[in-house]
Every structure is written in C-alpha cells, then in structure tokens.
C-alpha cells in the first residue's frame, strides 16, 4: 500500500492506495504516524483502498487514538462500499467523522 500526504490550504490530506491487511499494516501504521500532524484537520482519503482486513481496522483505531490525544481532528473520506461495510459491521464508523469528499470535510 502506498501512503501519501498533501496539503489543501491548512488541511492535511493523507491518501491510502492499495490493500490494508496484515502484510501491509505495520508499514502503513508507521507511515501514518510519520505523516500525521499534531494539530489541524486531517482527512484520510481511502478512495483507493481496495481491501481492508482486521489488521487495517487496528491501524485506523490507532490513528483515531492518536488524533484523540492531540489537537488534530480526523475525518475519513472516499470509503469504498466493502470497506464501509466492514467498518459498519464492526462499529468502527461510529468513531469517525465520515464525509463524501475532501471538500465536504473542509466544511465540518
């Protein structure tokens, strides 16, 4: 999985492209920790996340906790239907602000 970061004004957009599973989760977690700012709005764009296992849910939980322990606000966007279904079935959607686009996150 490739993880990237760019800024839209003062908003940090982190993109995730590929599969988030037990094989990729440790590196993705490291990448997210390195790219995650201590404050401001962070939008995690998952529109190119093709698959997410329980290891991926753990990564999301850890980044959620990181945001809770800082002055950063976290929103998710672009959840593919199968990823959304996994997050909904496990109750993970309740932890996150979920928006349809980066632009919508700017208004949150």
TrEMBL record:
Protein name: Anti-sigma factor antagonist
Domain STAS: from-to ranges: 11-108
Organism whose genome encodes this protein: Nonomuraea mangrovi
InterPro entries the UniProt entry points to: Anti-sigma_ant (IPR003658), STAS_dom (IPR002645), STAS_dom_sf (IPR036513)
Domain of life: Bacteria
PROSITE patterns associated with the record: STAS (PS50801)
Protein family: Belongs to the anti-sigma-factor antagonist family.
């Amino acid at each position: 999985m490739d993880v990237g970061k760019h800024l839209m004004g003062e908003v940090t957009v982190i993109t995730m492209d590929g599969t988030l599973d037990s094989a990729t989760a440790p590196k993705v977690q490291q990448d997210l920790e390195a790219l995650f700012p201590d404050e401001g709005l962070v939008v995690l764009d998952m529109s190119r996340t093709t698959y997410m296992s329980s290891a991926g849910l753990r990564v999301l939980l850890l980044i959620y906790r990181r945001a809770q322990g800082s002055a950063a606000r976290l929103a998710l966007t672009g959840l593919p239907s199968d990823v959304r279904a996994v997050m909904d079935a496990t109750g993970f959607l309740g932890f996150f602000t979920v928006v349809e686009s980066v632009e919508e996150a700017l208004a949150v």
